[in-house]
Amino acid sequence: MKRKFRIILITIFLVISPLFMVAQQPPHPNGGANPGAGNGPVGGGAPIDSGSRLLLLAAMAYGIYRFCHTHNEVSITE
Predict the structure, then answer these.
(1) In the prediction, which pLDDT does 13 show?
(2) Under 8 Å between Cβ of 29 and 20
(3) What is the pLDDT of residues 4-63, one digit of tens each?
(4) Which of 26, 45, 53, 56 sits a CA distance of 20 to 30 A from 15?
(5) CA triplet 8, 12, 15: central angle to 5 degrees?
(6) CA 18 to CA 2: how far, in whole Å?
(7) How far apart (Å, rounded) are the C-alpha atoms in residues 42 and 29?
């Protein structure tokens, strides 16, 4: 019973603790100034297209590697 009470108490603490954490607001991207013609979105519109292509290419290469190595094993039966 004592162990279950301790587990329940730790669980309650872990669930409630984020409610008491206070974080600062992020700063305004333009230093508080009104965005003009030269100020773009936060992050500058960074492209992620080539990174996702690279990730897909790596996943396909790994899948082909695993497929070839699992189907090329020789089983010896007597």
Answers:
(1) 93
(2) no
(3) 999 999 999 999 988 888 777 776 666 666 666 655 566 666 677 778 889 999 999 999
(4) 26
(5) 140
(6) 26
(7) 6
Polymer length in residues for the chain: 78
Q: Which amino acid is at 67?
A: F
Q: What is the pTM of this model?
A: 0.36
DSSP states of 1-64 as a string?
-HHHHHHHHHHHHHHHHHHH---PPPPPTTTTSPP-SS---TTTT---HHHHHHHHHHHHHHHH
> Which residue's structure tokens are 């519109």?
45
